[in-house]
Amino acid sequence: MLFWIFVFLLARQSSLTQGHPDLLSRAATEASCDCTINSCRTLFDIVWGCLATIFACTWVALHQNVPDPDLGHFALLMRKLRMMLVTIIAPEVIVGFAARQFVSARWISKEFDVSTTHGFFCNMGGFVSEEGHPVSKMKQLPAYMPAIRKIKKADIEDKSKGDTLSKGVAIAQGLWFVTQCLARVSQHLPLTELEVATLAFAVISVIIRLLWLHKPLDVQQPIVVTRSEVDPLQEEGITPPSDSVTLVDRIFGGIFGDHDHYHPISSTSVPSFYSIEIDAKDTYGLVTFAGVFGVGSIFGSIHCAAWNALFPSMAEMWIWRISSVFIAAYPALTTLLIIAASVWDLYDGITGVVVGFFIVVEFVVYPLCRLFLLILSFTTLRSLPPSAFVDVNWSNYIPHL
């Protein structure tokens, strides 16, 4: 409820729309940036502050799985750039990935009496066998758990490039940007479309960082553990060829956590979006839908806060409105349809076709809407109201003694 009140207040903070010349003229006279009485900010300040926040929300916030030990520096850089691109285009996919790893890590922690950090390290391919294969399947864990328990939590955290304090500071950075936006709303100062888009990234980033608070950051080398009994996967002799995994497998595996195509004993690292599938599959699936579709609706709803903002043209205004509404509403509608079809087992016939159509439309239209919002966030900077350059007067919040 508080979230929707927040979005409503943001939407009301600027009632300047194209086609209302009286409002435009009033905006030019009411709140202009007079540096003699107001604290001003420049266009560079706006852009730099937003880009720095987006970078922190997409690059710095990423906690990748342990990479292949043979990858070079350039390959590692491209790997993280791809993850960053996914975060910018579809941040809810990263939230779903982080939520799955969190649930799996907590389940492993309780089931095998280890720390949550140990659980995350299992999920990210941090433990490998003496042959160099990841210990990353549920049926493998009992054979290696005695050796894993002997590894101290501090030894795992020592491999991390960030501790709890640094992660807390990063979370505070996102919360600070949210606070600045709230302060502008409180003082009836408009937010630019770029700031609204950045606000959406900041909110999602805080969620991601909280889910990954106990996950080691940027670990490059795994820890070798010995097994106390026969590895069941080696006993089964599953060694599929490395080219058996298609691009479609990787995409759907990353979004829905379906990694049936992945076999640890034929690889030296886990996939980029990998998390161990726990026994509580219903909870696992629920977390996936909540992360991917629920957070997607929140992300789009924040963009709807700029519904009444000033746009340079009517076309840009309606493109922004349609794109933000689609991102906010369509994932929720798709989720409800999938749940209804699952409850009543209606995947056969026309209902299955409708569900498939909704999913296909979302995968095609959603990236386009995200791209439109990203482009408009920058193109609308060419025509900002004078009040957009007025900075927040923080002295209003300091009690006068």
Explain what you see:
This is Transmembrane protein. Residues 1-19 form the signal peptide. The chain crosses the membrane at residues 43-62, 83-103, 194-212, 284-306, 318-344, 350-376. Keywords: Membrane, Signal, Transmembrane, Transmembrane helix. The protein has 401 residues and is mainly α. It has one domain (7-17, 39-230, 278-393). It has helices spanning 2-12, 21-30, 43-60, 73-89, 91-112, 116-123, 141-150, 153-158, 164-186, 193-211, 232-236, 247-256, 281-304, 314-343, 350-379, and strands at 127-128, 223-224. It has a two-stranded parallel ribbon. Helix 5 runs parallel beside helix 10 (193-211) and helix 5 (91-112) runs antiparallel to helix 13 (281-304). The chain is globular and about 70 Å long.
Give the arrangement of secondary structure elements:
Elements: H1 2-12, H2 21-30, H3 43-60, H4 73-89, H5 91-112, H6 116-123, E1 127-128, H7 141-150, H8 153-158, H9 164-186, H10 193-211, E2 223-224, H11 232-236, H12 247-256, H13 281-304, H14 314-343, H15 350-379
Parallel strand pairs: 1-2
Transmembrane segments: 43-62, 83-103, 194-212, 284-306, 318-344, 350-376
Keywords: Membrane, Signal, Transmembrane, Transmembrane helix
Signal peptide: 1-19
